[in-house]
Predict the 3D structure of the following.
Amino acid sequence: MNIIKTIAYICAFMFSTAAYSQTTLRVATWLPPTSGQNDVVWPTWGKWVEDATEGRVKIELEYGSGHPKSMFSLVEDGVADVSFGVNGYLPGRFKLPAVVEIPGVTADPEALSVALWRVYKQHFEAAHEFDGLKVLGMFVHGPGQLFTTFEVNDLSDLHNKKIRTGGGVVNDLATRLGVVPVFAPVTKVYEMMQQGVIDGVFLPAQELKYSRLNEVVSDVTLFPSGMYTTAFTIFMNPDVFEDLSEKDRNAIMSVSGEKLSALAGRAWGNSDIKGLEAAREMNVRIKELTPEDPMTQQFAEKVQGMHEAWIDSVSDRPVDAQAALDDLNQAALEYQRKTTD
C-alpha cells in the first residue's frame, strides 16, 4: 500500500512540475476575432511557438484590450505579455519604421514586411527606439486605398474633404492632397462615415469587410501601388521574455523575426481580396487606376519629396537614413521576385 502511495505522490509531483513549467502568454488585441491578425496571424504563430517549445509555452488572446495606441504601454507595464501596435499612433517615439509607409517600389505587403524587418535589424535596432519592448516582428498592411462617399475623377475632387487618417506618414499625405485630416481609430470609422462626420478614409481594402465599410461607402479608388501603408510592430514584455528559459527564448525567436513578419504581411494582404469581394457584393463602385491613368500621375507628383522629408525627420537618430531606404527598396524587390518566380 505504501508503494502505491509513493508512486501516486511521485506521479502527482511530476504532473504538478510539468504544469508549473508551462507558460501562457497573454496576447492583447483590439481587433475583432474575424480580422486577419486574430484569425490567422496569432493562431499560426501560437502553434509555431507551442511546437517550437514542445508545449511549454502557449498563447491566449485577450480581446477588447483598449485603444490601439495603448498596446505599447500595456505590454511595457506588464498588463499584457504580447501585443502589436501601429507605430504612428505614438508620434515622435517610433520614427524610423515610417520609411516603409511612403509609396515606393512595391505594394506587396509580405515583401515590404520582410524588408522592414531586415532593415530594422541592420539599421534601426541600434537606435534603441524600442527600448522597453522585446521586438518580435514588424509588418505592414496591404496598400492603403481611398474609400469615399462620392465619386473621385480627379485628385482635386478631394480638396477640403474630411478624410480620416490614422497617424504617421499618412498625415503628410493628407496635407499634400489638400484634404481636412480627421484623426480617429479604425473602430470609429463606420459610425463617423454613416453620420456624415467624414467624407472618406484612407485604409487597406480589407476594412471594406472587417469594418463593414462596404455598407457606408459608395466609391473605392485603387491606386496601382497603393497610396501608403502602415508600419506595425509585434512586441513582448522583455521581463517576461527573460524569465523564460534560454531554450524557450531561442525557440520563440526561431519562429518570430522575419518568419513572423512575412506571415503577418501575407495575411493582411490576403484579407484585401475578401474586402474587395465584400464591396462588390454591395455594388460599391470600384475604380482600378492604371499606371498611365492621369490620377496616378497626379498622385506621383503629390508624393514627390516624401522620402526626403522622412530622412530629414530622423536626422536626430544615429542611422544612415539613405542607406536604410536603399536597402529597404532592394530587399523588397528581391523578396518579391523570389516569391513570384
User: Anything to note?
Assistant: The chain has 13 helices and eleven strands.
